[in-house]
Design brief:
This protein is α/β, with parallel strands linked by helices. The protein has a domain at 127-239. The protein is built from 18 helices and 7 strands. It has a 7-stranded mixed β-sheet with strand order 3-2-1-4-5-7-6. The protein is globular, with a radius of gyration of 20 Å.
Length: 359
């Protein structure tokens, strides 16, 4: 089965974004849709108005499917349907029939034409997920499956770090990271080429391995769906499911689905077409890794022009932490220290985080 989209699951932890942006009821957020986790999880946590934009129609098909599953199914059913939990192909087909009434006609046609992705679990059809599947088996050959499960029984940070140093920190695993994220291997297979325009040095594997210890230990593993999916391809413990797949989160989304608007557009296009003051919160993901310095500076200038008073933006990065252009520094300040502190508790800590404040 070929990848249908780049990401089956968005890689940003919405709990971190919630704190970084100081999201409050009534806020107005513009974000990148990606796999849908940021807009859906934030709506599951707060009542705010969200415009989720993406230049990929297929990422929007996936995001709207997740919203439809929240509205049509019970949370554990939705988790099984989407692929967070195990389910047989026939069960997913039956569940799709209940989701279809909550989808637009274009979405129905797309998913009816991609039933193999539905049967396997839609979150598993992403380019990144398909690529990482190849290395999951190698990693688990190095880290015995039974031994890895022992990590989930440890309660304290100190216990988890000691476990990591004893059982998970191995030269062979480090070598797997170097191979998996080397640009010659990772480019196009795991990520579109544009995503590596600032990351062609070959050091990404070292960077990711450097954050791997925090990934395994900084947050309780039983509540980290990213960790469980990465090692086991599914969520092991229901308490780890994303916020929009909890009882309370799904109820909030069912009550307020119209608070999310999906746009097939770039962030620049959304902002160009919006009146000044429309948005006061901006989630930029790691868009700077995908843009030239000039284009990124133009985007920040546009945000300064359009933002409401006292707005905030959250910006992640892996390959290049792009600076605020000097011409904007009287209107926009950056707080890397606060972002660094928040990432210590992030469920997917493979990014740097900077918080921008717009005066």
């Amino acid at each position: 089965m070929r990848p249908l989209y780049d990401y089956g699951v968005s890689q940003e932890d919405a709990l971190t974004e919630l704190r970084a942006l100081d999201v409050q009821p009534g806020d107005r957020l513009v974000c990148i849709a990606s796999g849908g986790e940021i807009p859906l999880n934030l709506l599951a946590l707060r009542d705010l108005r969200i415009v989720a934009a993406d230049i990929s129609p297929r990422q929007l098909f996936l995001s709207r499917l997740k919203l439809g599953a929240c509205r049509a199914l019970e949370p554990l059913e939705a988790a099984a349907f989407l692929g967070f939990l195990e389910a047989r192909a026939e069960k997913r087909k039956r569940l799709l029939a209940r989701v279809v009434p909550f989808l637009a006609e274009d979405d129905r046609r797309f998913w009816s034409g991609n039933m193999s992705a539905v049967e396997a679990g839609p979150i598993r059809a992403g380019r990144f997920e398909r690529y990482f599947d190849k290395f999951r088996f190698a990693s688990r050959a190095v880290i015995q499956k039974g031994r890895l499960r022992g990590l989930f029984e440890l309660q304290t940070l100190e216990e988890r770090r000691g476990f990591f140093d004893r059982f998970l920190s191995t030269p062979l695993l480090k070598a797997i990271f170097r191979v998996a994220f080397h640009p010659l291997v990772y480019r196009k297979r795991g990520i579109p080429e544009q995503g590596l325009i600032h990351g062609g040095s070959g050091h990404a594997g070292e960077f990711f391995y450097g954050r791997f210890k925090d990934f395994c230990t900084a947050t309780p593993p039983r509540r980290n769906y990213y960790l469980q999916i990465s090692f086991f391809g599914r969520v092991l413990f229901p308490e780890a499911l994303p916020e929009y797949l909890t009882e309370e989160g799904a109820r909030r989304i069912r009550d307020r689905p119209d608070l999310i608007s999906w746009r097939l557009a770039s962030l620049q296009e959304v902002l160009d077409g919006s009146a000044p003051g429309t948005f006061n919160k901006f989630h930029l993901s790691n868009i700077g890794d995908w843009m030239t310095r000039r284009d990124y500076g133009d985007l920040l200038a546009l945000i300064c022009e359009k933002a409401a008073a006292a707005s905030k933006a959250a910006v992640r990065s892996i390959h290049l932490d792009q600076a605020v252009p000097e011409v904007l520094r009287d209107r926009m300040t950056r707080d890397g220290r606060r972002g660094e502190a928040l990432m210590r508790q992030d469920r997917f800590p493979f990014y740097n985080l900077v918080i921008l404040e717009i005066r």
